[in-house]
Specification:
Bound molecules: nicotinamide-adenine-dinucleotide
InterPro entries: Ald_DH/histidinol_DH (IPR016161), Ald_DH_C (IPR016163), Ald_DH_CS_GLU (IPR029510), Ald_DH_N (IPR016162), Aldehyde_DH_dom (IPR015590), Aldehyde_DH_NAD(P) (IPR012394)
Keywords: Oxidoreductase
Structural class: alpha/beta
Number of helices: 16
Low-confidence stretches: none
Shape: globular
Family: Belongs to the aldehyde dehydrogenase family.
Organism: Penstemon davidsonii
Largest sheet: 7 strands, mixed
Distance between the termini: 67 Å
Strand order of the largest sheet: 10-13-14-9-8-15-16
Pfam families: Aldedh
Oligomer: single chain
Helix content: 40-55%
Radius of gyration: 25 Å
Strand content: 15-25%
C-alpha cells in the first residue's frame, strides 16, 4: 500500500501551474539558482550520501554527479532567455502575407522517475529541464539509493518552491500510485521492463513519455590505435564509472584475434596502475549497489559457459559488495553475459578475424544506448557511424558523449525514446506551438464558396 496521497500532490502542483507563476522567466531563474545553492552549500552531504549508498569514490561522485548537474544548471541559467524566445519561422506563398513563429510553452505538471546509479545527476538534471521550460515537477528518486533519496527530498524542500517542485520518496507502491495520476510528461530512467509499465500507465492519459533505458553498449577496438590511451579510456568508461553500473558503460568489447593479446595486456597493466595489484582494497572502485545485484553479477560469472573464460580479475567479496575488474575472453554468444545488460565490472572480449566483422555482431543485437569505436581508419569510422544504430556514439572515447551538452542524449529502440540534455532538455519539456500571424490584407476570395472550376485554377 502506498503511503502517499499522489492525487493531492498532483492537485497542488496543477493549481500552482494554473496560477501561471512557473511560466515567468524570474521564477524559472530563481529555481535554477536554488539548485546551484543546493550543490554549493551541501556538497559534503551529497558526497556522504553517495558514499553511503554506492561507496562512490569522492572524485567520481564530484565529477559525475555534482559537476554534471552544475554544468547543466549553469548552461540553463546562461541560455534560458534565448531558449524562451519565440523562434522565427519562414512562411510560404500559401500563407502570404504572413509571419510565423514557434513558441515554446510548458507542458504543465511533469513526473521524473530516477534510478539508483547516478541518483543526484539523474534526479536533478531532468528537473533543470522541467523547470527551465516552466513546468511544475515531481521527482521520485530510487528507493535503492535511500541516503541520496532522503538528502534530495530534504534539500529540495528546503531550497526550492515546494508548491511547484516536490520529491516523493518510495518504491513500487508509491510509484504505481503516482503513475495512476494524469501527467503532462513523464521522464523515466531505468530498465526496460519498468519502462513498459510506465508507458502503459501513461497511455491511459495520452501522456508523452521520455524513456531513458539501457542496453548492451559495444566498444570496438581496431589495431591501428594509441593502445595505452585507448586502454585508459576504456577502463575509465567501464570501471571508473561506478564499477560499470552506468547506462553508457562499455558492456562488451570486440577486437581482432591477432590484436587481442596486446590489448588485453595493455588493459590489465593500466587497470593495475589505476587500482593497484589488489583492486579489492582500492577506495577508487565503487561497490555493487546491493546483494541482489551482487548475486546477479556473480551468477553471470559462475555460468558454466563463462567461468573457465576469466582471463583477468574474478575476485569478489559479498560482505563488501565488491567485485574486482574482471575480463572474460571469447565467451559463447548464447551465454547470459552476452545476452543481458551486464551493468557491473565484468567485460567480455569477443574476437573476430577482421575488425569489420564486429558491425554484424552489433547490429544483430537490440539497438544499444551507446556504441564506441577506437580506430585511426577513416573508412571504418564512417562505416561504423553509418551502419550502427545506437542512442549515441563516441569515436576514440567512451562515455564523454554524455557530458557534451550540445548533443542530445537518449536511446533508440530498446534503449529508449526521446532525448534531453542542454537545450534538448528544455525542448523535451516544452510544447512547440506553431503560430501563424496575418493581418487583414491579401484576402484571396478564391478560397471561399461558392466554389467553381475557375477558382481552382487560381
Ligand atoms: P531502479 O531499480 O532504481 O529503478 C528505476 C526507477 O523505477 C526507481 O525510481 C524505481 O522506484 C522505479 N520502479 C522500479 N520498479 C517499478 C515498478 N514495478 N513500477 C513502477 N516503478 C518502478 O533502477 P534500475 O532499473 O535498476 O536502473 C538500471 C537500468 O537503468 C539499467 O538498464 C541502465 O542501463 C538504465 N539506466 C539508463 C540511464 C539513461 O540515462 N539512459 C541512466 C541510468 C540507468
Amino acid at each position: 500500500m502506498a503511503i502517499i496521497d499522489a492525487e493531492s500532490v498532483v492537485k497542488e502542483l496543477r493549481s500552482t501551474y494554473t496560477s501561471g507563476k512557473t511560466k515567468s522567466y524570474e521564477w524559472r531563474i530563481s529555481q535554477l539558482k536554488a539548485i546551484m545553492k543546493i550543490l554549493t552549500y551541501h556538497e559534503k552531504d551529497i558526497l556522504e550520501a553517495l558514499r553511503s549508498d554506492l561507496n562512490k569514490p569522492e572524485h567520481e561522485a564530484f565529477v559525475h554527479e555534482i559537476a554534471g548537474v552544475s554544468s547543466s544548471c549553469k548552461l540553463a541559467l546562461k541560455e534560458l532567455h534565448r531558449w524562451m524566445k519565440p523562434e522565427k519561422a519562414k512562411t510560404t506563398i500559401v500563407t502570404f502575407p504572413s509571419s510565423a513563429e514557434i513558441v515554446s510553452e510548458p507542458l504543465g505538471v511533469v513526473l521524473v522517475i530516477s534510478p539508483w546509479n547516478y541518483p543526484i545527476y539523474l534526479g536533478l538534471d531532468p528537473i533543470i529541464g522541467a523547470i527551465a521550460a516552466g513546468n511544475t515537477v515531481v521527482l521520485k528518486p530510487s528507493e535503492m539509493a535511500p541516503a541520496t533519496s532522503s538528502v534530495l527530498s530534504k534539500l529540495i524542500s528546503e531550497y526550492m518552491d515546494t508548491s511547484a517542485v516536490k520529491v516523493v520518496e518510495g518504491a513500487v507502491p508509491e510509484t504505481t500510485s503516482l503513475l495512476e495520476q494524469r501527467w503532462d510528461k513523464i521522464l523515466y530512467t531505468g530498465n526496460g521492463k519498468v519502462g513498459r509499465i510506465v508507458l502503459a500507465a501513461a497511455a491511459k492519459h495520452l501522456t508523452p513519455v521520455l524513456l531513458e533505458l539501457g542496453g548492451k553498449s559495444p566498444v570496438v577496438v581496431d589495431s591501428n590505435i594509441n593502445i595505452n590511451v585507448a586502454a585508459r579510456r576504456i577502463i575509465s568508461g567501464k570501471w571508473g564509472c561506478n564499477s560499470g553500473q552506468t547506462c553508457v558503460s562499455p558492456d562488451y568489447l570486440i577486437t581482432t584475434k591477432e590484436f587481442a593479446p596486446k590489448l588485453l595486456s595493455a588493459l590489465t597493466s593500466e587497470i593495475e596502475k589505476f587500482y593497484g595489484k589488489d583492486p579489492m582494497q582500492s577506495n577508487d572502485l565503487s561497490s555493487i549497489i546491493n546483494a541482489h545485484h551482487f548475486d546477479r553479477l556473480t551468477k553471470l560469472l559462475d555460468d558454466d559457459k563463462v567461468s573457465g573464460k576469466v582471463v583477468f580479475g574474478g575476485r569478489r567479496d559479498k560482505t563488501k559488495l565488491k567485485i574486482a575488474p574482471t575480463i572474460v575472453l571469447d565467451v559463447p554468444g548464447d551465454s547470459s553475459v552476452m545476452n543481458e545488460e551486464i551493468f557491473g565490472p565484468i567485460l567480455p572480449i569477443l574476437t573476430v578475424n577482421k575488425i569489420e566483422d564486429s558491425i554484424g555482431i552489433i547490429t544483430a543485437k537490440e539497438k544499444p544506448l551507446a556504441a564506441y569505436l577506437f580506430t585511426n581508419d577513416k573508412k571504418l569510422k564512417e562505416e561504423f557511424i553509418r551502419s550502427v544504430s545506437a542512442g549515441g556514439m563516441a569515436i576514440n572515447e567512451t562515455n564523454l558523449q554524455l557530458v557534451e551538452l550540445n548533443l542530445p542524449f537518449g536511446g533508440v529502440g530498446e534503449s529508449g525514446m526521446g532525448a534531453y540534455h542542454g537545450k534538448f532538455s528544455f525542448d523535451a519539456f516544452s510544447h512547440k506551438k506553431g503560430v501563424l500571424i496575418r493581418n487583414f490584407l491579401g484576402d484571396v476570395t478564391a478560397r471561399y464558396p461558392p466554389y467553381s472550376s475557375r477558382k481552382l485554377q487560381f
